[in-house]
Records
---
Amino acid sequence: KDAAQEAELTDGFHVLIDALKANDVETIYGLVGIPITDLARMAQAEGLRFIGFRHEANAVNAAAIAGYLTKKPGIAMTVSAPGFLNGLVALANATVNCFPMIMISGSSEREIVDLQQGDYEELDQLNAAKPYVKAAYRINHIEDIGIAMARAIRAAVSGRPGGVYLDVPAKLLGQTMEAAAAQRSIVKVVDPAPAQIPAPDAIARALDVLKNAKRPVIMLGKGAAYAQADADIRAFVEKTGIPYLAMSMAKGLLPDNHPQAAIAARSYALKEADCVMLIGARLNWLLSHGKGPTWGGKDHKDWAQKKFVQIDISAQEMDSNVPIDAPLAGDIGSTISALLKEIEKNGFNKPDTAWTGSIAEKRDANVAKMAKNLTAKSSPMNFMTALSAMRDVLKTRPDVYLVNEGANTLDLARSVIDMYEPRKRLDSGTWGVMGIGMGYAIAAAVESGKPVVALEGDSAFGFSGMEVETICRYNLPVTVVIFNNNGVYKGCDVNPTGGADPAPTVFVKGSRYDMLMEAFGGVGVTANTPEELSKALAEGITSGKPTLINVIIDENAGTESGRITHLNPKSAASKK
Ligand code: ADP
């Protein structure tokens, strides 16, 4: 071949990169190795940002939360079989949480994999991925890269968002084609997440149900936060005058100190309401499936005879657990704006002050009760002492992202730390999963350039702790705060046999997590008192330097499984 002929050719590596760039992808979260190392190098050379991680689950978690924050699919990249499987857990988590993302994994030779002849890292990745994702595709020919990427993007963000798997055999990357034809094969997706406008009769039906309610309440979920219809959602809540609750990641969609916030009166509101409007929240385990005592029912199977209005982009979500009286199948932005138009035309009678007043009263009483726990100091610190210090600092910085995982650390922080801006709270989500911490924190910092605080239980941190090196390598403004009580749930269990092994829930006592951050050039601090914690946290946020605060918590503090102790199986046979 002469030089002129060579110059006209391009390869799979570059077509893939061009397809990403044509669709405004700026960042890839990944971990290199055979067969994607050169792909990552070339992506960087072509102006994409490649954020390299230490474990694939963290890279894929990062891509997932990038998708949630931006409404564009987050992109993750992994090597074959083991790297793919490491990433799959986070891809499944993204799908369960309705976060749009694409995990691109290198894979081995089809011919060898299909005959199970034992290739390097042999695994039928496409079929392994399928049960856990919204969609899974493989690209076999270089000519198909453009359309395959378009398909993956559309699958990730249209309708109910989710995780997409894209299988890239090693051979594909080395395939060549004429450069001009390759350019023509690239697809820029038009309107990747088309509006889904609910039918006018569905809007009328929903307003009818709401108007006839005596004690209505709105429940905002992370779907509502994802929709980025913040101003309209706020206008809808305020124009209807209906008290609202927020699922944890929807906190801050309206500021938690909004006069209509019923968050601190959640139990009361769910029990007493006669009508609940769900906006981007599923009636799953986090909402006790919409029935039983939480909802004022007699037993766990009892539908509590409430009216339900539900906005969800997935029509299939309706009637999943209890009958929905007024389903609004549509995207939240379009649906809320249609509801607002009707309200502007026909007016809306705000709920009776007997109802809104009783909620406000309950809320204020609960807040006062909690204030007592927050001011009661303990030495060594307990969760509430440490959280009260954190709350005061974070109140002054509503722009900070708060990543949160753990058992007690998650459950208590959720109710103590108020959020004032949308999409600033990122947490364990639908599965209540541990391990999202550093991946979410890194992507929040990369995507926003804003400071991030990752509030972690010591156990939760362990799942992604090695990424403190990644935080230091990219010099990200992340402050990791570890509530260290020496174990899972608490650190005071003992081995009943008296043997040398510690109890299953106990870690090395007095661990110096702060030194882990120092090992990579970041700032490590130990905080024994609320004052030390406040000071270190404020410094971490303002300095923007990678910081880790090892917060010493009483090892006797903590409840088994936090607020979900009841989910642990109990045997009727075991009598103590
Ligand atoms: P939470 O855990 O906060 O209760 P869920 O993850 O259970 O929230 O529910 C989110 C819901 O929002 C999902 O059922 C999803 O289909 C829906 N959803 C996501 N994005 C949109 C959107 N743009 N418009 C309407 N519904 C959406």
---
Amino acid sequence: MSKERFEELRRQLDAVNQDILEVLNRRAELVQEIGQLKSGKGTERFDPIREKEMLDKLVASNEGPFPSDTIRHLFKQIFQASLGLQEEEKKSLLISRKNQSADTVVTFGNVSIGGNNQPLIISGPCSVETVDQMNAVGAHLQTEGIRLLRGGAYKPRTSPYDFQGLGVEGLKILSETAKKYGMTCVSEIVRPEDIEMSCEYLDVIQIGARNMQNFELLKEAGSVKKPILLKRGLSATIEELLYAAEYIASRGNSQIILCERGIRTYEKATRNTLDISAVPILKQESHLPVIVDIAHSTGRKDIMFPIAKAALAVGADGLIIETHNEPAVALSDAKQQLDLNQFSTLLKQLRESGYLKDTVE
Ligand code: PEP
Ligand code: MN
């Protein structure tokens, strides 16, 4: 073969490569458009029947020199790559950084969390027990500049014989205490039908670990105009937590705070295992604020300071720290609630070590 002919064939091959590239990308654009049409309709992206039809048609019209098996193999690769394109686009959830690069700032009352705001300390007892208890805690937290008061009214307890919470009476006490001391309040709601009612009392609605995949509750939370504090499930992956948040966002409520609160592992030294890497990963994957519950993750008081520092060091936008005026007689989570002096000591340590601003806002 002459050198000229060889060069000519190579030029033709280059041109065909360009044509294939162009055609492949044209195909990819069509696939993307089909993917968009499928999205929101609950239609599965992978359609094996359609794939078989396309392959059969191609093999039937194949005149070679490629054998049919090779044609099948090549086109299967193309189909798989196309599916990958649709998956990529599927990953671009409302709560994803891919969808919004700027941090979401969640705002309620005079409080803002996320973005460049100072870390928010959320504190109060595990359960609302009495008016006196809430007054004692509220008055103390006010002196420390705490702006979001917590307290459970519907308690998801392991044993049905344990204190189950005061219900709506607890929400009322929490809400009145918060108002009295110039704070906002957050509490867990466990039933979808209580979400709307709770808006009257709460500034932030909490969805607890045990309910992270209660999809009806998530949908209802998405339909109200109150921020949602969504805690990671006991054995939920980071991806599952993000999809749970997407349930809320997809219903129109984008004011969501994610909370890492420890996951179940074989380790018994702590109540749960704090997954510290979840914080930077969640912040990377999503634009939502991320907080760490240092009470339920550790279940013990003696390591609160290092754990709080770790959480803030990896970028947490806030902390949950349970406090009680008399932890020893608390009706739930007695072992992990700090008494009011211990709480002040912890804050002082965090301020002195530069993890929190020293001024009371
Ligand atoms: C709580 O914060 O009151 C609580 C019950 O926590 P979790 O849902 O994370 O167990
Ligand atoms: Mn608790």
